[in-house]
Each structure stands twice: as structure tokens, then as C-alpha cells.
């Protein structure tokens, strides 16, 4: 499909950024061969290049397009679906040198960022201006460009939405090197097709993002979390739609089970506030006055106790908040640390079907005699289901994980859910996406891809590739 890079290609690309920002063959760090899910394989790039500005990105893509060389754009590499790995070899283009917060505009409440800015950095910088960067994906060392490319969600999506809801403008480079500005700082735009929104979530298959304008919000003065234990996970999840109907919109509604909490405790070496029950909800609220917060807490706690909660623990200090959210933030790494290998299912279903899906996963674990862990965003129906290898022989693991994934995605489809709620498709979930969508939708996506990238050089083999 693509030719191999030659000496002339290395020389031409090195002339764009300087040789110090180009690695070839044995110089390439192994991290560039995979993302966080090594289960999906390692793929060797022929060259890694690190542009420092939009013009360099434009020149790299123009050359690659002319020479028909594949380009896989990569941020911090924290993805979970093989979206930033070079399955066709060729060029990996890292945007991590482009890592400046260019502007915090307090008047219009916008941030202008380069794609290599880390999530933790923009969260902190916005807070320094008494503003809130609302999207809250769990991996704070992810790059904002990667968040935009996967339309990352996170724990605050119940109240605030996902990354797409905050992207007001993009500067992008097309496959032929053309530079476009899509949107800007304005809060409304009905001017033709929304090309900006096509780029968000496209996983680097349509264009390369070089500048991002993100909406900020006023920072709430207080946040309080409720840790609500239940005898069963079904009881916990049955409460969620009722919490959603309360007058105050919760900032987060997360669910977890005792086993995952124990994994996090072992990983962090830090006790969770309470671990004697089988299942828990974490419900948090943000407010600007004590009276407003008290009313929110009262309504939720009263409802929870009426509906069978064993107790309601209020976390309204920094120490108490930390003990809960540090554990919640570590769930993925804790599960990963507890096993030898794993695969993940990132489906999303209606919030009133979350309990049934989790029970299905539990039954599947027993049926296949394999350990399965689950947690997720109860308030928006996005579940993270992990199938764990542990000590299984490789051949048995491959058979069982394939059957489990097929069953989980088939169940999500039967519930009219979606393949991915926030992690994306990459190359690992392509077949499940194709099975879940009408062929007409797939064909439309292919036409869109061809319009943006006629030679198919951008992140080939991903999403619908």
C-alpha cells in the first residue's frame, strides 16, 4: 500500500525540523510502537519526527502526501485503542514539542492551546485564573490534542459534557499541507457545515490539529462528594436515573465495586474511606454558596437512603475528597497492575440499562471462567469493562478474550448502545464499529475520509480504515 522510506526521505524530512528532532530505526524509542494497550500489538515506525510549529507540520504533510508516505500523528500516547500506533510503519509525527498555552482570555473565557499541552497543565492554568477547564478525562498526563482527537469524556461529563462541547476553534493541517482555521472564540456559529466538529473525534484520520481554542467556565467555589454504599451493584445503579431527575444536576456520578476498590488500595497503598460494602456510587456536586450546596446534598442523601443505600458519607474537605478521587483516578492503572494482560470494552448504553449490562458482564465472567472488572460513568452510561488474562496460557487467553469481547459488543448493540463512549476506535475496535453501524453510515464516513485525505496517508488503518 505504501512504499518504504528511503535515505532521500530522511534527508528531506530532517531538513524541515533539523536532524535533532528526527529519529530513525534503532534511534526510535520503543514507546512509539504502542499506546497504553500493548495487547493490541507493537508496530515499528520507520521514522519519528517532532515538529515545533504549524509550518513544519504543513511541510511534513505536504512532503508525505507527495511521496505517498503514511503519517501517524501522536500526542502523549495514553490512548487505549491503538489509535496512535503506526500499523503501516512510515512516519510517526509527535506533536509534543508544540506544548504551549498560548493564551488565557479572561474576557471571552477561552484558552488557546497547542496540541501537546497536557491536560493537567491546562486544568492548573485555568484554575490560576479562577476558571474551570470542564472536560475531565481520567488520564491527566494525556495531551489536549489527543483528547480532541478522541473526543475524550471523563467523570464530569454528566454536568459539563465532553471535549467536543468545549472546542470553539481549531487550526488544522490537511493531508496536502493546507492550513485551515475552523471556528474561533465566538460562542455561536451556524455558518455552513461544521468542519470543526468533523475533526473532533476523528483520531488523526482527517487532519492534524495544531492549535485549539477551548471554552472555559467560571470556577465553582465548592465541590462536595457523596460516597454511597449499597449491598448490590444493581441497587446502586437503579438509583442513578432517580438522581438524574433531582433539580440540581450532579457534576459526577460514578459506580464501582468492592473488588476494584481493593485493586486501587493495593496499587496506591492508601486506604479507601469505606470498603465493607459490595458496591458504591460517588456523586459530586459543585456550587457557589453553602446554602446551594447544602440543598443539593440533602436532596441526594435523602433520596439515596429512601432507595436502599446503606449509608451516605459526605466528603467536604480536601483530605476526604482526595481519599475518594485518588482511588477512582487509579482504577485503570490498578487493574492493569493486578494482571499480566488485559483488553477493554468502552461501550455506552442508556443509563437505565447500565445495571443489566454489568450483570451480563458478571455472568460472562462466570461462564468463561475469566476475571472481569468493571467501573464507569453511571451518569452517562459509559462503562469500562476489563477482561484480564492473569495466568491463562496464551492460546486459551486469545480464545476467551475474543469470545468475551464479541459477547460484550453484541450485548451493547442489542441494547442500542455504541461501541465507544470516550476512548475511540483506533485499529482495535474497527470491526466492532463496522458491525454496529448501518453500511450507509460507513460509506459516508469513507467518503468524508476521501474528501479530506485523498491519498489515505493520515493514520491509515484506523476507525474505518
UniProtKB/TrEMBL annotation:
Gene3D superfamilies: 3.30.465.10, 3.30.70.2190, 3.30.70.2740, Uridine Diphospho-n-acetylenolpyruvylglucosamine Reductase, domain 2 (3.30.43.10), Vanillyl-alcohol Oxidase, Chain A, domain 4 (1.10.45.10). Its cofactor is FAD. InterPro entries: FAD-bd_oxidored_4_C (IPR004113), FAD-bd_PCMH (IPR016166), FAD-bd_PCMH-like_sf (IPR036318), FAD-bd_PCMH_sub1 (IPR016167), FAD-bd_PCMH_sub2 (IPR016169), FAD-linked_Oxase-like_C (IPR016164), FAD-linked_OxidoTrans_Type4 (IPR051914), Oxid_FAD_bind_N (IPR006094). Keywords: FAD, Flavoprotein, Oxidoreductase. It holds the Pfam family FAD_binding_4. GO terms for molecular function: FAD binding; oxidoreductase activity. Residues 40-219 form the FAD-binding PCMH-type domain. It comes from the Bacteria. The keyword Flavoprotein applies. This is FAD-binding protein. It comes from Holdemania filiformis.
Amino acid at each position: 500500500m505504501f512504499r518504504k522510506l528511503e535515505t532521500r526521505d530522511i534527508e528531506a524530512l530532517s531538513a524541515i525540523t533539523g536532524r535533532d528532532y528526527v529519529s530513525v530505526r534503532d534511534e526510535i524509542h520503543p514507546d512509539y510502537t504502542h499506546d497504553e494497550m500493548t495487547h493490541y500489538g507493537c508496530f515499528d515506525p520507520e521514522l519519528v519526527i517532532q515538529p515545533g510549529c504549524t509550518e513544519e507540520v504543513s511541510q511534513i504533510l505536504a512532503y508525505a502526501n507527495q511521496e505517498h508516505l503514511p503519517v501517524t500523528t501522536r500526542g502523549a500516547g495514553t490512548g487505549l485503542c491503538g489509535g496512535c500506533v503506526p500499523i503501516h510503519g512510515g512516519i510517526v509525527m509527535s506533536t509534543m514539542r508544540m506544548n504551549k498555552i498560548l493564551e488565557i482570555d479572561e474576557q471571552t473565557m477561552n484558552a488557546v492551546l497547542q496540541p501537546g499541552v497536557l491536560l493537567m497543565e491546562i486544568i492548573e492554568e485555568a484554575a490560576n485564573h479562577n476558571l474551570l477547564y470542564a472536560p475531565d478525562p481520567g488520564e491527566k498526563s494525556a495531551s489536549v490534542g489527543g483528547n480532541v482527537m478522541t473526543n475524550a469524556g471523563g467523570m464530569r461529563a454528566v454536568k459539563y459534557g465532553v471535549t467536543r462541547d468545549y472546542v470553539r476553534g481549531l487550526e488544522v493541517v490537511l493531508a496536502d499541507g493546507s492550513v485551515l482555521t475552523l471556528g474561533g472564540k465566538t460562542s455561536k456559529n451556524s455558518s455552513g457545515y461544521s468542519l470543526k466538529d468533523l475533526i473532533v473525534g476523528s483520531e488523526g484520520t482527517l487532519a492534524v490539529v495544531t492549535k485549539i481554542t477551548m471554552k472555559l467556565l467560571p470556577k465553582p467555589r465548592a465541590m462536595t462528594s457523596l460516597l454511597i454504599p449499597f449491598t448490590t451493584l444493581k441497587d446502586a445503579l437503579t438509583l442513578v436515573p432517580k438522581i438524574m431527575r433531582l433539580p440540581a444536576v450532579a457534576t459526577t456520578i460514578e459506580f464501582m465495586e468492592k473488588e476494584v476498590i481493593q485493586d486501587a488500595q493495593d496499587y496506591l497503598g492508601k486506604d479507601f474511606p469505606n470498603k465493607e460494602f459490595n458496591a458504591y456510587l460517588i456523586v459530586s456536586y459543585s456550587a457557589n454558596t453553602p446554602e446551594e450546596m447544602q440543598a443539593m446534598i440533602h436532596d441526594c442523601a435523602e433520596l439515596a437512603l429512601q432507595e436502599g443505600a446503606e449509608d451516605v458519607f459526605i466528603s467536604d474537605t480536601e483530605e476526604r475528597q482526595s481519599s475518594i478521587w485518588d482511588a477512582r483516578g487509579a482504577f485503570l492503572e490498578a487493574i492493569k497492575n493486578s494482571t499480566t494482560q488485559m483488553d477493554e470494552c468502552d461501550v455506552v448504553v442508556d443509563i437505565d440499562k447500565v445495571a443489566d449490562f454489568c450483570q451480563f458482564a458478571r455472568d460472562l465472567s462466570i461462564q468463561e471462567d475469566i476475571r472481569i472488572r468493571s467501573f464507569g460513568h453511571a451518569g452517562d452510561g459509559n462503562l469500562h469493562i476489563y477482561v484480564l488474562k492473569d495466568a491463562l496460557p496464551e492460546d486459551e487467553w486469545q480464545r476467551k478474550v475474543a469470545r468475551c469481547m464479541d459477547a460484550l459488543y453484541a450485548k451493547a448493540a442489542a441494547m442500542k448502545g455504541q461501541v465507544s463512549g470516550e476512548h475511540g476506535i483506533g485499529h482495535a475496535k474497527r470491526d466492532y464499529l463496522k458491525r454496529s453501524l448501518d453500511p450507509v453510515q460507513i460509506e459516508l464516513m469513507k467518503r468524508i475520509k476521501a474528501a479530506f485525505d485523498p491519498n489515505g496517508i493520515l493514520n491509515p488503518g484506523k476507525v474505518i480504515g
